Nitrogen permease regulator 3
Amino acid sequence: MAESLLAILLVTKSAKGPALVYRWPPLPTGHPRLSRSRPDDGSWPSRIDNPWCASHAPEVLLGHAFAPNDQSWVDDPEYRWQRPVRARSPSNQNNSPSHSPVDGSFSPPDPAPKPGEFHEYSHAFGYEVDFLAGLLLPHPSTCHQKFELLVDDLAFVGHPVCVNWEGKWEFKEDKMEKELRGKESGIMSLSLKDMPGGISITADGQTGVDHLQIFHVVLVCDIPDPSSSDSGNLFKYFDIIYEQIAFTLTAVLFQEQVLHKYVQEECDKLGALRDLSLSDREPYDVFATRCLEVSSMATTIKDLYEAIKTSRIARLRINNFPLELQLPPHLDTLLHNEDETEMNYFNPSEEDDFPGWGAEMSFGWHLPPLAPWKTLLLLDEPMRGEDGDALLDLKGPYPSTEDRCIAEGLVKFLETVTVTLSLADVANLLDWDLEGQIYPIVRWLVYSRRAKIIDTIHPGLKNVFTVPSKFDVPLSDLTTEFAQIFNHPAIPPLPRILSLVSYSISKQTENHFYACFVKSKEMIPPFHDVVIWMLKRDLLITLHLRIRVVATPDLKLRVQMQKERALARKKSHSRGRRRSLRVLKDDLDPQELGLRGFSNPGVPWLSLSPKSSSAQRLPSMDSACSEMSELAVEDEEDEYAYEGYRGLDSDWNEDMNDFGLDGDGDMNSSSIIHDPARATALQKKWLSAMSDGKDPSVAKRFEQINQYFDGKRSGDEILYRAEISRRQLRETLHHYEEYVSCYL
């Protein structure tokens, strides 16, 4: 918005007609637009004819360049892009006399007014102010809604409001309340369209004059060139401007107009001062400056414009009503292509399981995810009000108990939060709900630019940092400010610190801030202040520990050998079982089974041998059933005998299907298990084999936390989700160092 905002206008309509009451800056101008190139002389066709130029000598070309030509292109208006200027508004044209003489001969129109003292009062952006005001004041039926108008290279965004159908400034009541009021009241009101402009009939029959009928605060923006690749999401850009500036400001102004006639009184002051300045023949910029002394409305418009242009929060006071307005700090990035030099140091996967920042902070803020393992860095300057009083002093008297409880809770939170405590730790210390109490305060502090979300700082400054690709403030200014604040002899200059931080990430060990600068516990406090100062100015970026699980070739070979040995054991066991069953069937004697009392012991009534059963079978009605029973017994034996083979084949085929996925099938090279939480059957065997010979407690911990070793989750996130300490994580990584890959 700092790039595109050109001016803020206050447009009104009263009984006198539409008027542009005030604007800031006094003399707004749009960004220059490129028109088609204009030749510098009459010989331009010869200059663009390359074959002709190549076939003639330089002397001939020089002679043609200065040759006279009847057709001059220098003054051709086709090559000059100018915004059209209306000499007079339509109403003035109807009331003005005709320029045609009585005899019917043609008379040329009056030339456009030349720039001068009165031209600044009557024109803005190349248009007459009366015409522009009429253009920006819609019909009353289309008020109280979003207004967006694109004209040439200008965009007008606002929210016009008007009086109701009775000609009064009143709040819009609900439909049910209106119907109820209409039934209870027997007084018939006269419609506004049946009355003269500005006259309203009250309930008791008295008449009054409403000077102000419509007012509209308009933000004038420059439209990016449509042929440029930086046009971006233009409509989303204007939507954010409308929602966070135009609508909110108009809502407060409408409230003050309904309650106190504030806007009408301010417009009367500005109109009277304008007439006085015109009579004194003062330039418009002098008039605009004098308005700041007599009108708080003019001051509000000026402060809002300057705050937007400098990307600050506009802290306004409208008729003693405090109001803070701002646009997202990085809103202008919607108009540009993504900067390839900016690195995304935020992990998008961290936002999956946690609430976001809300609709107001979803565009143009470039915020890290709001997660429990993050912390809050309080900013010094925004924590102070306009009068210099610290915002932290919130223990004064309050009109209600609810306000006092909110203020006391905020003070307690601000006194507890530090950069070495995560938001989850703060919630535990205060015994507050993380999402219901901690997150709303964090959102408010970040939105009001009184704090920022950063990664938790180690108490011993053992964080690994890097430097951004570019700084928002020149390095020379930062160096001067740093030298004035930190004069300890052990603290090197700022350029030296930035150089060592940038170089430290190339080292495998001793690359954290403590090893590079602090080197003793006594120096932790002063260097802690250095880190805080640099983080507030976005001079440091925290690097995160990422962990991946790697299956080495030795591990793959060991798992493969275990699989083959298990297959051999199962095959041997199944063969022995089958052989024992056959011996048992051949050696069984019916006499040993209690069949000695039968008259014909040669006939086996309960034979367990399929051979004897089929050789000696008695004809009976149940023969069919007996035959099926024998077949079932034989099939059961075969199925039992080959059960081990089928189970082994199933496991083997499943493992074979895993081979070839993500390089897992290569036995001679290492393989990364990309997502241990969704590991395949073969990868699960690798993960299990990694714990062979390990301490049972460490192996159990590794089994619980290896699901987070996917290379996406940071070390702080792993500690929070796994509910372990840094020491336990470090111990686990030490025992499994041959199977894990750690990087920043």
Q: What stands out?
A: Residues 343-455 form one domain. The chain has four domains: 5-28+120-171+207-334, 343-455, 474-543, 545-584+646-744. Residues 553-587 form the longest helix (35 residues).
